[in-house]
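Write out the 3D structure for:
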Amino acid sequence: EVQLVESGGGLVQPGGSLRLSCTASGFPNSRPAMSWVRRPPGKGFEWVSGVYNDGSAAYADSVKGRFTISRDNAKNAVYLQMNNLTPEDTALYYCAIPKYGLRPGIDDYWGQGTQVTVSS
């Protein structure tokens, strides 16, 4: 059974930073990518970033230049360093393992989410 556990969320002031972590147990080796998706309050899911096991990554335009994704294949872990946070980054952040590409679908593996709140 695949389980994803996120951590690192919290309350931060605008302009601040947070580092999210996600560790997978029972990782499906047939799936090369890990991704972050967020859901702002009252809005739909928004793909944030994804990284393949070779380190190649992609980002949503809204976070490009501010967020950095990385992973540790030995630990089956993925991280999201978030800098220069704005209130628009407030959301529940999910870690996911997509079956194809970098954008997970509803039937893929998802964690329970970690809350990020950016507010003064």
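The chain has no helices and eleven strands.
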